[in-house]
Amino acid sequence: MDFNGSDTIPGPRTEDHLPHTAQAAVKIVIVGGFGVGKTTMVGSVSDIRPLTTEETMTQAGIGVDDNYGSESKTATTVAMDFGRISVTDKLVLYLFGTPGQERFWFLWNGLFEGALGAVVLVDTRRLEVSFDVMGRLEERGVPFVVAVNSFPDAPRYPVEELRTALDLTPEIPIMECDVRRRASSKEVLMTLMRFLHSIALTGALT
Amino acid sequence: MTPPQRKRREPKPPPPPQPPAPQPADGEAEPKNPERLYTVAGSEDGARAELDLVTLIVARDAPQPAASPEQAAVLRLCANPLSVAELSAYLNLPFSAMTVLITELITAELVQVRAPIVRRAVPDRSLLEAVMHGLQRL
Prior knowledge:
The structure holds 2 protein chains of 2 kinds.
Chain A: E1 24-32, H1 38-45, E2 51-58, E3 75-86, E4 91-99, H2 102-105, E5 117-122, H3 131-140, E6 144-149, H4 159-165, E7 174-177, H5 182-202
Parallel strand pairs in A: 1-4, 1-5, 5-6, 6-7
Antiparallel strand pairs in A: 2-3, 3-4
Chain B: E1 56-59, H1 69-77, E2 82-83, H2 84-91, H3 95-107, E3 111-114, H4 125-136
Antiparallel strand pairs in B: 1-2, 1-3
């Protein structure tokens, strides 16, 4: 273990310290395929420089969900980038950018179960990459919105055509965004929050 | 050009209760999770507190000279509240190893834990409104 004495471990910068009044945190998950812009989105709205938490899984776990009893112990590292927004002096919001493959999700306790909701970030050049993610979220009852990261050379579809292609119910928000822009990423998060709020008002997720 | 077509899925009913795990022959009660690797934490049975990525950890006191380097590092980082995820990132430790280390500190009453607010079937509107107000200020 690379523990070169605890004095040398870099911690948060002084301006990144949470106040002692911080009582609780909530989290939102940004999920999507490789290279779709999850980390860029986290970084564009985060108060802190995005950080990375890692988990190890055995080789046997790659591509196979049930590896109990397997003798293979070769460790592989799976990384997840995240950022933080101080909502009030008592409440903190964390944003996690996570790979779309469900086999990674169980590595972190309650990653989706406890999340307020999720943003599915899609690239219209590889729309089908996001199909399984949306299905998994639907199965787990995790509310989500769909954000299309507008890459310059990506095909553009009208929102209603996308809704049909993604087989999303009319109430699920779909929006275009440019996750490099803070205002755009913020609007995606606001759209998710308004959607969650509308669920709270109607009392049900269809 | 027509985009590829997905098919919607329905929420799955909650899984049926799991049958009790088979007991190992040596009588050890704790089922081992083969994916998790423990390298730093010294606890023998691998028992862990229920810690979320965003559980906030706060040190009760400055580290004592007797503390291990890892424990001292956590206590120093947690002088102000810090999430388990951030601790894992700053200390370069896998999340699972981090939770074992924190469990030791909880058992030794060296840290306080502030549990996260998790999603409920009927969301808490005042919580959502607080988050929205916070985001609007960005």
